[in-house]
Amino acid sequence: MLGLLRRITQEVTAAQSLPAALDIIVRRVRRAMRAEVCSIYLVDANTKDYVLMATRGLNADVAGSVSLKSDEGLVSLVGRRAEPVNLEDAHIHPSFHYLNGTGEERYRSFLGVPIIHHRQVLGVLVVQHEDKRRFDEGEEAFLITLSAQLAGVIAHAEATGAITSLNSNAISGSDFRYKGVPGSSGVAIGRGIVIFPPADLDVIPDRRTTDFDEEIQDFYQALDAVRQDIRRASNRISQHLSVDEKALFDVYLKILDDNSIAGEIVRKIKEGNWAQGALRQVIQAHIAQFNRMDDPYLRERASDLRDLGRRILSHLQEKAPNVAERFSEPSIIIGEELTASMLGEIPIDKIKGLVSVMGSGNSHVAILARAMGIPTVMGALDLPYAQLDKVDLIVDGYLGKIFTYPSEALIENYQQIVDEERQLEEEYEALRDLPCETLDGQRLSLFVNTGLSADVARSLDRGAEGIGLYRTEVPFMVRDRFPTEAEQVVIYRQQLEGFAPAPVTVRTLDIGGDKALSYFPINEANPFLGWRGIRVTLDHLEIFMAQIRAMIKASADLHNLKIMLPMISNVAEVEEALALIRRGYAEVKEEGYNVKMPRVGVMIEIPAAVYQVKELSELVDFLSVGTNDLTQYLLAVDRNNPRVADLYNSFHPSVLRALLSIVDQVRGEGVGLSVCGEMAGDPMGAILLMAMGYEVLSMSSTSLPKVKAVIRNISMKQAQDMLDEVMKLSHAEAVTQTMTRLMREANIERLIRPSKTTNVD
């Protein structure tokens, strides 16, 4: 059973089009279940009708042209219920409706299961027999299992089918729309450029080319280089191999022959794809064929083929221009999984917008995008990104939407939003040097979160009063080794000097989870509950002490350093870290540096810390709530997983109650209390946090002007009234809807986003 499911899924995944995928499903399922009929009905996105898209057993000529209304027939009943319908005699069921032209009148038994993707019914998979008999539990279970596995494949195939194929003319004005997760607010209108990590066949996009001769020449040069690599490898180890084993290298060379894979790749290039895209298409098609084979030896040959493909690709990429050279104008960057290192290769002034298929609104790329003010959509799982190179796009970072081949009317609509954004920026600029205080005189301090040296100037330009979180992992991540203590001193000094005499909070190294160092890999089954943050550095005193000494040395004569400890889950960790910080301070003092013992604080980002806030406050000088991880751990939601992105919500009542509890527990303790998570940079969140009693909010520099504009236009009394109203609610959605209404009534909603964003469909 499992082998059959795997083979069907692999065949469908390898299909070149949606019709081909559907035909494979009905053909294979009919045979596997020994059914007389297998059909697939898909929901029309506009009419909501169930359209017969593919069938084996019914009249295939009517596929695509006949349909059932959303409230008509047994198929729609399956869709409405979102559960299987298994009938011995379908004709006597009150919902039965004969679909003219299909020839199904002679079939009595009926089993239909819904095809569901992300809670949305995409269609219904049906099998039928002439005999009156109920399908048994095993047959029903098989069809349900298969449907669940194929749902994502069909969803992706539907999305891919909406885009023109490589050889078709672009359909301008089509307004194809894809949904993702808002990553960074704003709108970008421009042309897409697909980027991808090196030597990874699976993420190579299709790209049109008209210079066939040059692409073919590049391909043959790469092919010759791989042949030479194989011959060298064969010669190096030939004395250790038998005749049969040496023959394997000859097999590799034959695979690369013009009469085999090489010839297929050249044909794909002549059809209009660039060499790398043609290579991916052919290699993946052959790998899929090998994977479908029953013989385990032959299935293993798929890995050999993938290796050859990667070798050719690496040589092709050696000749290709580097990423930065591809950008002659500002563009919208698209990738399967964008990373900070990928963005680091592109000049910032050439990035107009970002779209990542993987990740969520709280992925680190999204946080980085917000810091740079780049409109971003994350988690666009069904986006056919490989086909969007040099395609016109609109990225709506407010609503998490991407439009491909936009019409003039849609472009004009979104251009008005861009113009309104510019007007808001001018309003923000006028507030730069004004304090962040409410209409009734309540003062709120706005700090910034930084990670790069460039963040300092950008933050000061926007009126930041200090650094509430400097992420030291960023300079660690951009290197291929641990930075030395001396190198760290220079890095930290830039931040401390740039803001002196204002306070700068430097967080000790916070790696693990979704923050990896290439030279210090941490491989765990559940990294977010594993070795990360303070747990890593306390286990590696050489890393921790070098960092502590570097921080303290960097603060010489400035005296504005604050040290913050991440991922604290118990009092013992704080006691151990404090002893080490005091030791580091004494060592630096002995070396003759003019330094003062820095204030030390902890991040409250684990539920355990929430319930020990009072004990922790007795040990440290300040507490800073990290709402990103706190939300993640309270709701048991991986904030980087787009499948559960809709469950990650900092306005969940449980999160709000935890935040209020922290304030209540430390009231009167004389300890500093701030918030440095992304919630602080959301004007809606800032209002609620201020009303709770937080006096310092730290955020990206891009968010700071919006938060200041909102706070300066309401009173503390209004904020507290808003808090009182939402704390009674039991749904996160109700909290955001209520706050949106209250902010509209207070005439401050327009300060957050252009008014037209709420009117764009």
Please, could you describe this protein's structure?
By secondary structure, the protein is an alpha/beta fold. It is built from 26 helices and 22 strands. Strand 1 (37-43) and strand 2 (50-56) form a beta hairpin. Helix 1 packs antiparallel against helix 2 (18-32), helix 15 (485-499) packs parallel to helix 17 (541-554) and helix 23 packs across helix 25 (716-726). The radius of gyration is 30 Å and the shape is globular. The model is unreliable at 160-170 (pLDDT under 50).
Shape: globular
Helix content range of the residues, please? 40-55%
Number of strands: 22
Give the end-to-end Cα distance, rounded to a whole number of Å: 44 Å
Low-confidence stretches: 160-170
Helix/strand structural class: alpha/beta
Q: Mean pLDDT across all residues, rounded?
A: 87
Give me the number of helical elements.
Answer: 26
Strand line-up in the sheet with most strands: 7-14-13-9-10-11-12-8
What is the radius of gyration computed over CA atoms, rounded to a whole number of angstroms?
Answer: 30 Å
What share of residues are in beta strands?
Answer: 15-25%
* Largest sheet descriptor: 8 strands, mixed
Enzyme class: transferase
Keywords: Coiled coil, Cytoplasm, Kinase, Magnesium, Metal-binding, Phosphotransferase system, Sugar transport, Transferase, Transport
Main location: cytoplasm
Subcellular location: Cytoplasm
